[in-house]
Amino acid sequence: MKRHLLLLSIVLGIVLLLAAVVLLATPAPTFAQDSGDSMPETGEAEGGDGYCLLCHSQPDQTYTLPDGSVLDITINPDHFADSVHSELGCTQCHGDMSYPHETPVPTTSRDYTMRMAVICTTCHEEQASGLVDDLHYQALADGQYEAATCVDCHGAHEVQSPQDNREIGALACSNCHVIAFDQYENSVHGAALFAGDPNVPSCIDCHGVHGIEHPTTAQFRNNSPELCGECHADKDLMNEYGITTNVFDSYLSDFHGTTVALFEERDPNVATNKAVCYDCHGVHDIARADAENSHVIKQNLLGTCQQCHPDATSDFADSWVGHYEPTFESHPLLYSVNLFYKLLIPGVLAGFAVLIGVDIFGRMRRRG
Amino acid sequence: MAKTQTHHDGYQRFKPSQRFEHIIVILTFTVLALTGIPQKFSSHDWAKSMIDFLGGIESVRIVHRIMATLLVAESIYHGGILSYKIYVLGQRLTMIPGIKDARDVWDYIRYNLGWSKEHPHMPRYNFGEKAEYLAMVWGTLIMVLTGFMLWNPIGTAAILPGAWIPAAKAAHGAEAVLAVLSIITWHMYNVHVKMLNKSMFTGKLTHGQMKEEHGAELAEIEAGRTWPLPPPEVIQKRRRVFLPYAVVMSIILVAGLIYFVSFEESAISTVPRLSAAGETIDVHPDIGDPVIGAQLWTATGCDACHGARGEGTEGLANFSIAGTSLSFEAFATSVRRGPAEMPAYGKQQLSDEDLAHLWVWLTTKE
Fold first, then answer.
1. CATH number for the domain harbouring residue B343
2. Looking at this predicted complex, what is its ipTM?
3. Helix (H, G, I), strand (E, B) or coil at A18
4. Which of A89, A152, A162, A199 has its CA 20 to 30 A from that of A292?
5. Residues of B in Cβ contact (< 8 Å) with A365
């Protein structure tokens, strides 16, 4: 068996070498498949990659589909060689296609893309199994054929590993989600991602990858503070940026957070209109809290409150204590009230304890 | 003769109306505590279980507010009765603490420690009861005022600095803890543990209890020295003054209570989150006309950044929105909110219909 493989590799190597020589030696044939039916006369073995590339590496190769749309069928061999699938042969995805191609052609380019995307699942079973709950997959199943397939995000011949380059995770979405991406790109997270920060979330870190949920469900909303908390309550991570991890706890102790946390835990599928992180900080356009365009910086905060509290006045925005521990300097009234009760409650209870203790003592003493 | 009779029946302390007030206070206080304390400690499992048991956080809040309303109504009633007793019946202010009470505390300690053989002779309301009553008045006042602020934060912030609201929340929670702990310790011990004081339910105290708790009052009763009521004609005269005043005050206070309860909608059920322009979109995109859309595109100045056909321009809107894949809702929300550098367009600049025209036109572009 091994000997067979070795032999095959040698043959294939020679064939490729020959092909390269032939390509370099002969002027490029300038046919487009639409018009040219003639079989190129070369020494290529049928079925090899080089054999396919004889035609498909020619620039500007196109194919007109029955609906009139034009399919670009030129493959850049360099891009393919750089892709994670460079080890695979053409036929592993495209099947055994002899020339002239007899496979029934798709009617539209979208139809073709969708047919090809199904092939990915033959190897990527794990990713495919998660798709059942995926938003794009469900949209496709519902007949919305513009929804993303594997190749719309990952590309076809130039597939790169998304683990090696986190930007891919965001750029893939930008093909369709133009406005969201535009906002994200300029957000504190997006700008940092494209500046090479390895920690900031890209689209997929919040939305998921192959099981993308609808972000407008009650469950997504109720769970969103925990989503942000995954990073923002992580002390080691936040120390790198000098951001307090008290954001999560202080949110939970606030009226909004108290309510949302209870819903998240007890009724995750019931919608609550109490604010979650992104209602105040923005969804895709999150900025540093002290940035001029931040929704939560002092001069913009009232407008943010008014989204839910339309009658709010400028003083209303001051009722927000912030995510930092209140001090006497920052919140004199709140601090004083807390201090007052910190002294009053033990004081009163100590007084009661003394009087009750004395009474019990007296009663026991008199009894005997 | 009167003396032996009272001795057998016990000594009258509370009229049925007063006992009824007490039951109202038991009800409101208990329910307010049961619905309020778990809100303060909502991150604890026991609190979550309590909230679950009471039907979830939203119903807990509603029950809390109903009971708060009842307690305020009871406070108004109590104030009215108190004014009547003081002004019309000319009764003594038996709840006001004085030097005698401080001396009673000291004598009480000395007696219990065995430094003195004599138990203090205490008045109609002894120091413990005065403390509890006045704490109840103080506590209710704090709870009603801070509760109002939490119930109506927007109205409050229109009058007071916003910083009062978190301070009110802190005070409301801390005062609640103080009140509950006081009831559990001081009230429980004095009327349930030390002795079973049934006067709030039966209206009467025994001779022994009177002697211990209200020795001074008992001595007055036994000596026949009771506080006299004014002559009937004086009462009649005062009543004629008091009644209109009481009616007016009651109307004002009850109206105030209704105002208090219905003051602010958004604190109870916040309005659905609006777009930044403060409006929702409520037209169907089917009404959109691409011809009008094309005119609006240039008339509104969309083309300045997005190009003549939505193809985008270098350095401004550096992306194409021609043939937009956005749903109409997403498109409309975007325009209303103003994503990234794009200004928000409110209804003054673009009506909902205009948005439909623009969207339909954009989807026809490539």
1. 1.10.760.10
2. 0.72
3. helix
4. A199
5. 112, 114
Range of the domain at B345: 285-364
Candidates B165, B189, B265, B273, partner chain A, best to mutate (most A CBs within 10 A): B165
- At a CB cut-off of 8 Å and minimum separation 6, what does B336 contact? B275, B276, B277, B279, B281, B344, B345, B346
Are B14 and B156 within one domain?
yes
Question: Does residue B60 sit within a domain?
Answer: yes
Residue B125 and residue B16 share a domain: yes
Top pLDDT among B244 and A81 is at: B244
H-type helices in A26-108, by residue range? 49-56, 77-82, 90-94
Are residue B245 and residue B360 in the same domain, yes or no? no
B166 and B315 in a single domain? The answer is: no
Total number of domains in chain B: 2
Pick the closest to residue A98 from A33, A46, A35 (CA basis).
Answer: A46
Residues of chain B neighbouring A259 (CB-CB closer than 8 A)? 57
Question: Tokens standing for B114?
Answer: 């065995």
Residues 308 to 347 of B: which have CB under 8 A from any A CB?
319-321, 324-326, 330, 334, 339-341
pTM, two decimals, is 0.72
Mean pLDDT of chain A: 79
Fill in the DSSP letter of residue B275.
Answer: P
Q: Are residues B50 and B130 in the same domain?
A: yes
Interface test with chain B among A182, A226, A270, by most B beta carbons within 10 Å: A182
Structural domain contains residue B272: no
Q: Are residues B302 and B342 in the same domain?
A: yes
Q: Nearest CA of chain A to the CA of B42: how many Å?
A: 7
A363 has a chain B CB within 8 A of its CB: yes
